[in-house]
Every structure is written in structure tokens, then in C-alpha cells.
Amino acid sequence: MSASIRLDPWVEGYLDYLLEVRRKTKRTVTDVRCTLKRACEAFAESHPGQELWELELEAYLRWLERERRAGRSEACLAKYVSHLRGLLDYCWRSGRSDRNVLDGLSLRDTQGRRAPRVLSLEEAGRLVEACSQSTPLARRDRVIVLLLYGCGLRTAELCALRVQDVDRERRELFVRQGKGDRQRVVPIPDGVHTALLAYLLERGGKRGALFRTAARRRPLASKDVTGVVREAAARAGLAGAVTPRTLRHSFATHLMDRGVDLAVISSLMGHRSPSETGVYLHVLPGRAGAAVEQIAQEGTS
């Protein structure tokens, strides 16, 4: 994409509206800006002289098809549609155009969703048991595995944790850098809390990154955490790839198996809504049917 392309002042006004009025995060607005720049560059070649809100639906469909052939995923294309639809709706409500040609357009994922890798309770137990406690580094790694599985953290969230994010009295973890800049508080299970307290005493200090490298004492990076989980899985003899995301998926699935409400799981995982958490219902065999059956039973009780 050309770095010299400039957005129309009206588009810049829309981005300011997202930031100042809709209170979208800077990261979200930057993402929208990238989509609009990409579209503007493409349409400057195929429809010179026309603004985004002046294009017909067919023009957008042809562009989306070109993006699909270029290798863009279904999720990426759906994001493009969402960003552009928002701009066109803003233009329509502001009287800039007489309609939103993308209103009602949705893209279906023709590839379907693949079930996320999930550990069984027995495998999760083996993974934790495979974490040695013989050295300070080994004890640190064990706490990392426990937090990923016991609190359902994303890798980036765990890397961003600071000592002061641990509320020892309330037994809670403050996730200040969640996805989409959404913050949340996660309760710490008893077994995880005990191991975390012991680690904090051994680590020392009241501030700074919760997990640091042994050599330069810098905050752990995502690759470091991935390595910790991969090595623990190898020691546990677990087949297939086991990643930090595997532990997060296992956290959600095991809570669902215990009958925890979907809205509660959504809140714990930092999802925007229970519909986002619904992936665990849709991709895991029999789970959607079991949920519907439970709702039917509750409705007749």
C-alpha cells in the first residue's frame, strides 16, 4: 500500500468521531484507518474520482473478491466490511449520501471453524505435574502454566502482568492490557493462588514485571511463554502441539463442562460478549445440542 495516500477530510472526521464520541480505543481506530486506506487505494485505481460513499455495492463486492483471491481470510474480509459499513452509515446519517450500500451485507465463513485443541482434565493434570519445582526458574515456569490454564489468560496478557496487578487479599488478578484495551479482574483459584504467593515471596520486590527472564531480568516475551508451555508439554508426553492458547481453550471448555454460565465465562476470558465465547459451543461436537437441551429443561421446570 502506498504510504502517500491521504484520506478525505470527511473520512478523517469519521475517525475523530470514533475516537472522541464513540470512545473507541486508539488501536481500534488505527485498525479502521488501515482498512479505509486500503480501500481508498484500490478504488482510486478502479473508480478514480469517486469517494467511498459514492460507490455502488457491486464495486465493493468486486473489491472483496479480489482481496479474497489475494489470500485474505474470511475473518479479515468480514472486518473490512464492518469498518466500511460503519463509515457509510456515518455518511448516510450525516446526509453525505442517500443510502448505505453495505447495510445488511454479511460474509459467511465458507471454510468453517476448526475445533480448538483442548486438553482433557487428565492431560492438564499431567502438564502441571511435569512442571518441576526444583529451581527458581522451574517454579516460575510452573506458575506461568498454572495462570494460563487456571485463569484463561492470553499470552500477551500474561506477559504484561505486573507485581502490583496481583491482589493478594482478594485473590484476584487485574488484567490491564486485554484484547481491545479491555480490562478485567479474574479470580485466582486456590491452588494457583498458593503457588503464586510462594513465587512472589521468592521473586521479591513490590513493582515491575511479574515474570522476567533469568539473564537480563527483562519482561518475558510471547515466544518465551510459548517455549515454557512447549517444554512442559514435551516432559508430560502430550501428543500434538500444545500452546498457551491451548491452555486458554481448555480453561473455557472445562468451565463449560462444569455448567458455568456462558456469560460468566465470557467475562472471565475478556470477550466482548457471550456470542464471542459461543465458538466453544459451535465447534465442539455435541456441545451446542447439550446447551439447547439444558435451556429446554430449564424452560419446562
Low-confidence stretches: 287-301
CATH H-level name of the largest domain... which superfamily?
Intergrase catalytic core
Q: What's the alpha carbon Rg, rounded to whole Å?
A: 23 Å
Number of domains: 2
Structural shape = elongated
CATH structural fold name of the largest domain: hpI Integrase, Chain A
Alpha-beta classification? mainly alpha
Overall pLDDT score: 85
Describe the structure.
With 301 residues, the chain is mostly helical. The protein has two domains: 9-93, DNA polymerase, domain 1, CATH 1.10.150; 121-285, hpI Integrase, Chain A (Orthogonal Bundle). The protein is 57% helix and 3% strand. It contains 14 helices and three strands. A three-stranded antiparallel sheet has the order 1-2-3. The N and C termini lie far apart (59 Å). 25% of the residues are buried. Residues 287-301 have low confidence and may be disordered.
Structural features:
single chain; 301 residues; DNA polymerase, domain 1; hpI Integrase, Chain A; 2 domains; 3-stranded antiparallel β-sheet
What's the arrangement of secondary structure elements?
Layout lengths: L8 H12 L5 H21 L10 H13 L4 H20 L27 H9 L6 H16 L3 H6 L5 E2 L4 E4 L8 E4 L2 H14 L18 H15 L7 H14 L4 H8 L4 H4 L1 H5 L3 H14 L1
Helix pairs in contact: 1-2, 5-9, 6-8, 6-10
How would you sum up this structure in a few lines?
With 301 residues, the chain is mostly helical.
